[in-house]
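Format notes (please read before filing issues)

Several people have asked whether sequences and structure tokens are stored in separate files. They are not. Every record keeps both together, in the order shown below: the sequence lines, then the token lines. Line labels are part of the format and must not be stripped during preprocessing.
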Amino acid sequence: MIKFKNGTVRTLLYVILIIYSMSIFSPIFLMLITSLKENREIFTRPYSLPQSFNLDSYIHLFKISNYLIYFRNSIIVTLTALLIILALSSLISYVLAKYRFIGSRFLYFYFIAGLIIPIKLGTIGIIRIMLGLHIFDTLAALIIVYAAMGIPFGVFILTDFIRLIPEELSNAARIDGCSEPKIFFRIILPLIRPALAAVVIINFIPIWNDFWFPLLLVRTDNVKTIPLATALLYGQFETNFGLIFSVLTAASLPVIIFYLIMSRQFIKGLSSGALKG
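Then the structure lines:
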């Protein structure tokens, strides 16, 4: 009877996982087949396979339009911002987790406040800062804003993770003559790699999909990112939905590939955090 119950529960779990997977993959599949249809067919046969595979949207995307430039801009902004987030948040977290000094707790809660207060509330101040620094309408403006968005979360995750690392490891390295930078790079960083992967994955999608700050901080066509350039495809009288769906399909591929590469480290970070907690 127990074996039957266990088998029933396992079958039920598989059914739930299959239904959940279908709910995730069906919109992606629908987006893909829609990108291969003409405008008329998108509205007359929205849920069926295309009668003939139309690649005109993809040809227009990569040969005629500037979308390769937009993809390049999104990749540069996202990867650079993520590198800054990882570098600064890991160093800050190491100091806050391993050292006690006057104002350390205030500094920690100062960064945590960045998770509570929406950065969009400071939009006017951000625009003024970018104009004052003469980096308005550049990729550097977007990189700085996205780095500022991601550092508070990185500090929040990495500080608690570093606190779980036994201090005996650092003390043993100090006895062997290791300096603090060597301890950080040779001992701490390898141990917090799963947490770093979690920080990267959670920050990647909001940065890649952000529309608000490119809309406000970017004017030149060669500096636009994918979300802003895609929004401008919607015309007042006519819209090429095949081109829009081809852009969305192409823009989804980096996210999917990035998640598949980093998912193992992300799951390891979640499981190790649960075990240590």
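For reference, the curators noted about this record: The CA atoms of residues 269 and 275 lie 10 Å apart. Residues 241-276 form the longest helix (36 residues).
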